[in-house]
Amino acid sequence: MNVRLALCLVIVAASSALRAQERSLVTAAQQEPRPLAITNVTVIDVAAGARLPNRTVIVEGNQITATGAAGAVPVPARAIRIDGAGKFLMPGLIDTHVHLALARNRDSLGAIGPLLAHGVTGVRDAGAGGQDAWLVALRDRVSRGEVLGPRMYVSGMVAGRTLARAGVDATTLARQLVDLRVDGLKIRDGLKMDEIRAVLAVAAEARLPVYGHTYDAVNRDRDEVYTLEAIRAGVSGTMHVLGMPQLGGNERPTPPSRSRSEAWQQWWVYYAIFWLHTDPAAEQALIDTMVARGAWLEPTLVTEDWVANPDVYRDSWVVRHLPGSFAAAHEGFPALDGTAREQYRAAFARMMDFVRRFHQAGGRLVAGTDCIPACGYGLNDELRLLVQAGLTPAAAVRAATIDAARVLGWADRLGRVEKGLVADLVLLEADPLQDIRNVSRVDAVVANGRLLDRKQLALLAPRD
């Protein structure tokens, strides 16, 4: 077959699949949900980290209306019955760090389907400067029930680059984002501490949290002070453990001799290996401060593993039916070998140790992926890495359910399988408390009371 013709056929097929996916999401949202009864199932009590066997859970509208021992809970006459024998029911997963505006085929809802297909029923979009109005509009479409998708929490971004683009100061930009009705304000690199305090002042008036990249990728000589000062100033949490090494009085490594534009991969490794020069006492001071102030940590370990151990993802590409090619997805990330790879892996091990220490000190961890390797596909890996860092499977599950809901202000309606809460649920084929990898074994999803069975879920996850 002619190569150009073959490519055209692939594009047509992909476009057709996306249109079918969008129709499915819109149709599912508009249909009145029938009552649902999941019987004889083991419910995962995420707060206690316990299994509740032989339970029946009733869903009517978009709410859980009853839970109890199998046989003791009346099943509505019109209910769709699902025999949950041998299966496990848990709250829908929440990814606290996605970037839907940056995803491929965003306007065809191409990023939403894979999230639902992998049991992700709630997300915090971590922002895309200049795309805030698009994100708020999509959030509102989901909230109004015009399209079925994970419920969204939208971050408005304040950073050096967004200030330059808008041509305003930090106070003005923060107020503009509040007026746009974002759910929280995210700070990034390029801000001075007085600008962070200005954002915090605006947020306090609006009763919104401030969080984000509490480090500066350009001025690395003040990273450890910047993060600590940001937390002390009132920032509610920080994303990306990569940027948090606490050097204290230790010497910094020698930087690459060439510029960032000429040697961006070497600079990427250079920033990571700050973790090989940390001061344990300074690290402990940051942990103690964060725990004392209730500041959460979203480490996005999958982003660093994506760089340190790409073969883990390359080897599973076909098995997991990830969209596109591995090479295309990894573009823009360093391809390391030799000494650079070993240094990065050593630095990643130190990041993992920091996460372990933070957790053991009583810190609150939440699970976010940065849409690595693609929106919807990475949360299982993030939970796997949290367990590798030292969390129990139960603690990792909490990071993507009840603790994520608390951080996003959703805990009064989401994050548990309980009467009166919104019916965002995932039915699994195997026990996630026994092996965290079982979170990937999704049998069905209930999103805002709508049942998505295996056939529907397969439609929502793109295939090559």
Derived structural class: alpha/beta
Domain count: the total is 2
CATH superfamily of the largest domain: Metal-dependent hydrolases
What is the CA-based Rg, rounded? 22 Å
- Low-pLDDT residue intervals, each spanning 5 or more residues: 1-15
Q: How confident is the prediction overall: mean pLDDT?
A: 89
The CATH topology of the largest domain: TIM Barrel
Helix content: 40-55%
Number of helices: 18
List how many beta strands DSSP finds. 15
Q: Alpha-carbon distance between the termini? A: 18 Å
Question: What is the top-level CATH class of the largest domain?
Answer: Alpha Beta
Description:
Helix 6 packs parallel to helix 7 and helix 10 (301-308) runs antiparallel to helix 14 (338-360). It contains 18 helices and 15 strands. Mean pLDDT is 89; it is low at 1-15. It is globular, with a radius of gyration of 22 Å. By secondary structure, it is α/β, with parallel strands linked by helices. The protein folds into 2 domains: 3-89 and 420-460, Urease, subunit C, domain 1 (Roll); 94-407, Metal-dependent hydrolases (TIM Barrel), CATH 3.20.20. It starts with a helix and ends with a helix. Helices cover 40% and strands 18% of the residues.
List the keywords.
464 residues, alpha/beta, Urease, subunit C, domain 1, TIM Barrel, 8-stranded mixed sheet, 18 helices, 18% strand
How would you briefly describe this protein structure?
The protein has 464 residues and is of the alpha/beta class.
